[in-house]
Amino acid sequence: MSEHNTNQGSAVRHRHRTEGPQKHVIAFIFSIVLTLIAFAAVAAGGVNASFTIILLVVMAVLQVLVQLGYWMHLKDKGHMIPILFMAFGFFVAGTAVITALYWVWW
Fold first, then answer.
1. For the purposes of burial, counting CB atoms within 10 Å of the CB of 80, is it exposed (0-12), middle (13-18) or buried (19 or more)?
2. Contacts of 63 (CB under 8 A, 6+ apart)
3. Looking at residues 59-80, what average pLDDT do you find?
4. How far lies 64's CA from each of 2, 3, 27, 33, in Å?
5. Angle ∠(98,104,106) on CA atoms, nearest 5
6. Alpha-carbon separation of residue 18 from 8, 15, 24, 94 (angstroms)
7. What is the pTM of this model?
8. In angstroms, what CA-CA distances link 69 with 57, 64, 73, 85?
9. DSSP code per residue over 2-22
10. Would you list the domain boundaries of the chain?
11. Could you tell me if 53 and 63 are in contact, meaning their C-beta atoms sit under 8 angstroms apart?
12. Backbone angles phi, psi at 6, to 5 degrees
């Protein structure tokens, strides 16, 4: 008899579902498209400056979400604590920026 009792017959096997490269390729293409849209908005000289800034901010937020979700794997189960810490960090940083702006202009 072997020293390792694996008990494979009655045990339920839980395999970690690996995701294939398809989702990473799609996320990479989406990141490239977002970058190209941002470059095109800046390269087009006739576009309104305020629209360009808003578009760049939207593209940046989408890029961050793609990066965090797919490359940092925060879309997977078991990542709630890092997400909460990052949300708290964004809250603290946003509060600091708003406080600094209020302090400077008023």
1. exposed
2. 31, 34, 35
3. 81
4. 51, 50, 12, 14
5. 90
6. 22, 9, 12, 36
7. 0.60
8. 18, 8, 5, 15
9. -SS---TTTSPP-------HH
10. 21-75, 77-106
11. no
12. -80, -30
